[in-house]
Amino acid sequence: MNLAMDDFTLFGLPQRFALDRAAVDERWRTLQARMHPDHVANASAAEQQAATQWAVRINEARERLGNPVQRAFLLCELRGVPMDAQAGRGAVPLVFLARQMAWREALDEARDVQAVERLDAEVAAHERETLESLHVLLDERDDAVAAAQLAWVLSYVVRLREAIASRLEALEA
User: Fold this and answer.
1) Using 50, 70 and 90 to split pLDDT, how confident is the model at 44?
2) 19: which residues sit within 8 A by CB, 6+ positions away?
3) CA 12 to CA 123: how far, in whole Å?
4) What is the DSSP letter of 39?
5) What are phi and psi of 134, to 5 degrees?
6) For residue 149, which phi and psi values (nearest 5 degrees)?
7) How far apart are CA 141 and CA 139, in angstroms?
8) Alpha helix (H) ranges present in 43-143?
9) Lowest mean pLDDT across 15-24, 86-95, 122-131
10) Cβ-contact 8, 65 below 8 angstroms
11) What's the pLDDT score for residue 38?
């Protein structure tokens, strides 16, 4: 195995957006069982360090493969589309940015749990649509350029859903 291989290759999984989380977790357990530093506790310092590097690499790969935003970013990059912050600045459509700002304002103005839950339902529906579109663009059409734009949109939606969840917790406390 090579530390530089992509996460999909490392886990022996196809380079697809639609992944079975159970398959990712099962492959992670298998890799960790094989490469965990505890297995080389009596080995040389170099072997222990290598095992630690592998354990970290495997955990990072599991995180990326299990996170839809990170997985979409990774697939776009593997297909030649840069996904760094500079590329993302102009990638998000202005129409979506306006919608996102309206959602943020609605969250700021929401005074009760029901209002926040209504907003969450609307944003969650948009998240589901975006995930499905990413699946189509990456797995069926192989259109990484269009997928990159949606991956950035998804990153905004996920952060907004986190803010909504925090607001719900505060209101319910």
Assistant:
1) confident
2) 13, 65, 71
3) 34
4) G
5) -65, -40
6) -60, -45
7) 6
8) 45-66, 68-78, 85-89, 94-109, 113-135
9) 86-95
10) yes
11) 78
Cβ atoms within 10 Å, residue 121:
10
User: Which residue reads 């949606």 in tokens?
Assistant: 150
Amino acid 46 reads A
In angstroms, the CA 39 to CA 24 distance is 22
Q: For the segment 94-112, what is each residue's pLDDT rounded down to a tens digit?
A: 999 999 999 999 999 999 9
- Phi-psi category of residue 12: left, alpha or beta, with phi > 0 → left and psi -120 to 50 → alpha: left
Q: What is the pLDDT of residue 42?
A: 78
So where are the chain's domains? Answer: 7-66, 81-172
Position 83: which residue type? Answer: M
Residue 143, Cβ density class (10 Å: 0-12 exposed, 13-18 middle, ≥19 buried): middle
Q: What is the pLDDT of residue 90?
A: 85
More confident residue, 48 or 118: 118
Q: Would you identify the CATH topology of the domain 81-172?
A: Monooxygenase (1.20.1280)
Q: Match 């589901």 to its residue by tokens.
A: 128
CATH number of 7-66: 1.10.287.110
pLDDT tens string 59-95: 999 999 999 999 999 999 999 999 998 888 888 999 9
